[in-house]
Structures are given as structure tokens and as C-alpha cells.
Amino acid sequence: MIIHKLLTAAPVCGLLAVLACAALPATASADDGPSPAPAPKVELVLDVSGSMRARDIDGESRMSAAKQAFDDVLDSVPQGVQLGIRTLGADYPGNDRKTGCKDTRQLYPIGPLDRTEAKTAVATLQPTGWTPIGPALLAAADDIKGGDGTRRLVLITDGEDTCPPLNPCDVARDIAAKGIHLVIDTLGLIPDSTTRNQLSCIAEATGGTYTTVQHRQQLTTKVKQLVDRSTDTTATPVATQGAASCTQAPLLTAGLYTDRETFSENRYYRVAVKPGQELRASATIADDRAVNPGYGILLRGVTLHGREIVRDDEGGSGRTDAVSAGIRYPKPDADDDTPAETVCLQISNSFSAPPSVKTTPGLPVELAIDLVHAPDQPSDVAFLGLGRGWWLLGLLTVTGAVAGLLTGWAARWRLNSGRNV
User: Fold this and answer.
1) Res 32 pLDDT > 90
2) Candidate CATH numbers 3.40.50.410, 3.40.50.2000, 1.20.140.10, 3.40.50.300; the one for domain 41-235
3) Which residues form the VWFA domain (predicted)?
């Protein structure tokens, strides 16, 4: 009897085992989709030194502007970004340099963001002490280490480091030499020339960007942009160096690049555009020092022989700290044997500066290059710049001409008829 029951239950147990196996997660299956991308890490490093009391950003203090910008930024941090906040000069109000140069702490640890907790922590800050940028960068690099995602530090300060002999530019170079792919972006609040040079050097050493900030909204927009950039692994700028001629220019692929260009200089870069691709490029030049009002940027696409293909130019009046231009060039689809076309990108600027302003290093340039599938009808973009409506405009032109001729003939016929009467 017992044997009969076991034989009867055997198929049922087998079926349950199969169902149980099917219900288990197939972690080792080769058919699984790609694993989630590693979480990017960002740490905002904020200067809370005594100079942040200055009231020269839209009529309010630099500290107040920074707090408001942080509130806006924390509300828009992309999903999945692990964000932290470190301060420098926030705690020690005394005059002892040795103590003041140790004044840096992690205000909010890097990890999943609790917006309320992070905002509350920022709200308590008051401008206090020294400006230990070098020690803060070293500590921040330790905060953000580990993991396989992108890593960015965003340094926001209104002055140069006050803790020699540790040079923050040397610190940034040492961080870059470790090969941990940590990018440091720097933002200077109403900076003087010494601060601009120091912050530019920090950013350049790690492939980051430097921006001069004069308004609260400008600070908010730039920090948001840098935090968003952490989620795009292709958006980390790569240092390059343009050439004085197209034949000597570096060959670039799709990506984001940084360079330096002196006042009123031309620089060239090459891009290979395959049949069926559309080249999209934009260039931005920032005036990271005092410049004369009235300046511009020219971005051209030319052939190896110098024939212009496409161009765009934009000007500035001195009210902004950057000016940009962008172009599009579609390459019609062709046979497989058709080679790629080399397009030379020329970036020119018409910046000038007072005699007291240093011209070296050159102005920071950011070049974005993208290669996408070209439109099915290249004339939609290229023909006279009229887009998809060019054929309709041509039809209307012909129709208008015919209507004009008919109207003229009718008027002449009426005039002749009146005379005969």
C-alpha cells in the first residue's frame, strides 16, 4: 500500500520540482539581459570660508546663492546617482593656520540621496574659516573611491587655497596619476585672476571643466549639468590639442573634447564621416578672465582642400561667460566601397583683452562631436537651409510667377478691348 502511494506521488513530485526550478531566478542564464550599469558617484565640495559672506551675487551673499543653488540641484538629481557633500572652511573660525587647514568634513555621505536630510544639512552652514582646497580634494578623493561607475567632484569656491605649501593643482595631478578616472570640475564665484588660474589648473589636470560664475541661476544650471553628466559615460571630456592646419589636425571620433585656444586663434580638428552618417558638432569657448566686450566664435566644416561645407558663428556682448556655435553636415548614403569623407572642423574666436590680462594659458574650448544616421533625403537639411519645405516654396514661387503672367495678360487684353470700343 505504501509502495503504491509512493509510485502515485512520484509524477506529482517531479512536476512540482520542475515548477519550482522554473520559478527560481535564472541568475546564471546566458539569455539574461545586460547587468545594470554601475551607479555613478558625485561629490559636491563647497567652500564655506569667511569670504563667502560677500554680498555680490545678485544682491545676496555668495553663501546664500550657493544654498539656493544646492536646493534646486538636490531636487533634480537623476535616479541612481550616489551623491555626497563635503565642506571646507565650515567649522574653525580661529587664526591658527595649522588647525584651519584641517577644516574639511563630509557633510553628507555619498550614497542614495535623501533630499530632505541633505537640504537640512546644507541649511545649517555659515561662512566661517579658511580655504583648504588641497586637503579637501584629498579627502574627497578618498570619499568617492571604489565602484565601477563614473566619479566626479564638483568644487565650488570663491577664492584660492590658503593652505600652502600644499598646492591644490599638484594634488589634482597626483589624483589623476593614480588612474582612478576621477574628474574634477571647478566653479569660481566672482573669482580674481589668481583663483581662475588655480581652478583652471585643477580642472585641466583631471579632464574636467572650469566655469566662472557671477549669478545664482548660472551656478544652479552649471551644477545640474555636471551632475547629469555623471550618468553619461561618453560625456567625460577628453583633452586634445587642435592644430594650425587641417592636414596636421588630430582625428577625432564621437565624444566630448577640451582644448585651449589663445585670443583670435584658429584651430583645426578632423572627423571621418561615413556615407549615411550626419556629423553634428558644437563648440563653446569660455572667457575665464576679463575680456573686452564684443567677441564671437566661428565653427566651420571644410574639406581637406579648404572648401567650406557648412558654418555657424555666434557673438557675445560681455554679459555671458561663454559663447557657442553648432553645425550639421549629412553625408548621403552610397555604395559600400565609398570611403569616409574627412571633414575639418575649424574653431576661430575673436576675443580680445586689456593689456594687463594674461593671454596664457588660452581660453578653454569644449568641442562636442556626434555621428548619427543621416536623413533619408539629405536635401531636407542641406538644400539652401530651407528644410523639408523647400520644394513647397519652389512650387509656390512657380505658381506665383504663372499667376502674375496671367494677370498681366488679362490686364492688357482689357485695356486693348477698351481702346477698340
Assistant:
1) no
2) 3.40.50.410
3) 41-230
Distance, CA of 196 to CA of 363 (rounded, Å): 11
Q: How confident is the model at residue 375 (pLDDT cuts 50, 70, 90)?
A: low
Model pLDDT for residues 140-182, shown as the tens digit of each residue: 999 998 888 889 999 999 999 999 888 999 999 998 888 778 9
The neighbouring-strand residues paired with 278 are 330, 372
Q: Give the pLDDT confidence score for residue 388 in this predicted structure.
A: 41
In the chain, residues under CATH classification 2.60.120.380 are 238-380
Please tell me the predicted confidence (pLDDT) of residue 236.
64
Give the residue range(s) of CATH 3.40.50.410 domains in the chain.
41-235
| pLDDT band at residue 65 under the 50/70/90 scheme | very high
CATH architecture of 238-380: Sandwich (2.60)
Q: What is the rounded distance in angstroms from the CA atom of residue 353 to the CA atom of residue 358?
A: 8
* Cα–Cα distance for residue pair 208/204, rounded to 1 Å: 6
